[in-house]
Design brief:
two-stranded parallel sheet, binds pyridoxal-5'-phosphate, 9 helices
Amino acid sequence: MSKRVHNFCAGPCTLPLSVLEEARDEFVDYHGEGMSLIEMSHRAKAYDEVHQEAMRLALEVYGAPQDFGVMFIQGGATLQFAMVPMNLLSAGTTAGYVNSGSWGQGAIADAKPHAEIYTAWDGAEHNYTRMPRPGEIRVEPNTRYLHVTSNETIGGIRMVDWPDAGVPLVADMSSDYMSRAIPWEKFDLIYGGAQKNLGPAGMAIVFMRKSIVDGLNKNLARYLRYDVHLDKDSLFNTPPVFAVYMVGKVLKWMKAKGGLAVIEREAADKAAILYDVIDGSGGYYSSPVDEACRSHMNVVFRLPSEDLEKKFLAEADRADLVNLKGHRSVGGCRASIYNALPADSVRVLADFMGEFQRANG
Ligand SMILES: *Cc1c(COP(=O)(O)O)cnc(C)c1O
């Protein structure tokens, strides 16, 4: 078998080995068609089955109610930063944004050219170490939606309780997508790049409440319109066929595992293994974030000095524990432990952390 390392990359990320192997086996000759799936027409029957099944499974695995539709749109989560305000806001309406860290700021930066939006809660005042607490969010009149980031991938914090803002929520869920059950009634729209929890890079998955279609802005280039993607079943133009195909396989893998409930429990268990090591290290390893908001996907930690962090990362790398460096904007270490990362990889890292402390403490 080919070599597989313990890959803690923040994105793109580890995918289930069984999914990669299946894709490899089907790659050159897809189901006896005599060509690869990525060589055939996106209107071909074989692809259409893949496409429709991926959409069906996305709704099913996430437990989306009847009122929601799903769309596959290129441009990643980043394009959604712009599409959300372009589609949802109109003259006389505004939107509140929770600035919870780097990605919350990204959403704010790309909304500003399109509308007069405002910061409804500012995590800068708390050094981005936590999410808003009940009652802290300030919602202004004529607010169409409150934008939140469910999990800040770089800061390592997650929204445990969804705000009761009195307006619909729009959420960037990129880095904890489909890792826990969500209260659908609170949301009008949910989006995320596929490459953190669900597949390769190349598309965003967008869930939208269908009843909001009438109120959407139609005065946009067609590719930028949610109503067009929804109406065309995400086949308005050539879709990112390989990404759709892989996401479909990952969703099937998730369903076979037992679905969201099992994934959610595994995520909590995997995260606890690492936070236990950090908390039990007598301060050798430290978590810079509020305990109540610790991410179950991106475990951020520091060592006593930057020199030790460098040594830690180099030795981890030699032990095939890779991509543990924190984001360049914050430094330190970060273990991203998305849905498909085996618990065994997390245990290997936990043991390594213990040994490193004993040798360098
Ligand atoms: C990675 C990430 C993004 C950016 O996603 P792209 O698909 O690369 O555009 C946005 N938001 C969050 C929370 C992320 O983790």
